[in-house]
Amino acid sequence: MNKKEVIFILLNDFADWEGAYISTCLNIGVKPGNPIKYSVKTLSISKDPVRSIGGFKVLPDYGINDMPEDYAGLVLVGGMSWFSPEAGQIVPLIEKAIADKKLVAGICNASVFLGAHGFLNNVKHTSNGLEYIKQYAGDKYAGEANYINKQAVRDVNIVTANGTAPLDFCREILYALDADTPEIIEESYQYYINGLSPK
Q: Per the CB 3.0–4.6 Å rule, which of 37, 83, 163, 167 could disulfide with 108?
């Protein structure tokens, strides 16, 4: 089966834990042994190494100038660089992904970045708190009426989450991508939340 790529956007000081569950579920299957529909790739501003908050150094598969046309979605992993000027170079990629009706997902400060560029004004969404997104997203954010105070929110192809919700973020992305059956997606979520419980 030809697997579609899901591209994880990583900037310096990215929050490595915020993408870990999603990438694992996509790369080896939501339930190991089940069909794998997607492959995981990484992208940054350039193909130079980027370092996570936790000290992992990643060599991106793509820079912004050599990203493929055919992919399933973009996952913006949170971190400390989404308020930097260089992050603005990602905006055209998001505009095109939304226009092409592809998945766009942002967690923590990456959700604020989506708000700061007007991408959340007309969709239901969440972030690190309403006051937080209003403070840091600035004047282009006009989505207060669509803000939902939940761990993660999915509105068609847009998924957002706060920084304490990597598992909820993962679950909503898996649903948006139809990565497995709803039963298997829920089973995976419960497994990670509750661990191995006695039968």
A: 163
Taking alpha carbons only, the member of 106, 84, 81 closest to residue 93 is 106
Q: Give the DSSP H or E segment for 76.
A: strand 73-76
pTM, rounded to two decimals:
0.96
d(CA 5, CA 19): 15
- Write out the catalytic residue numbers: 108
Instruction: Provide DSSP, 6-20.
Output: EEEE--TTB-THHHH
- Residue for token pair 């973020």: 169
In the numeric block, which tokens belong to residue 47?
């193909």
CA neighbours closer than 13 Å in the CB half-sphere of residue 141 = 23
Average pLDDT of the residues in 3-30: 96
DSSP-based three-state secondary structure for 38: strand
Confidence band of 199 (pLDDT split at 50, 70, 90): low
**3-state DSSP assignment of residue 198:** coil
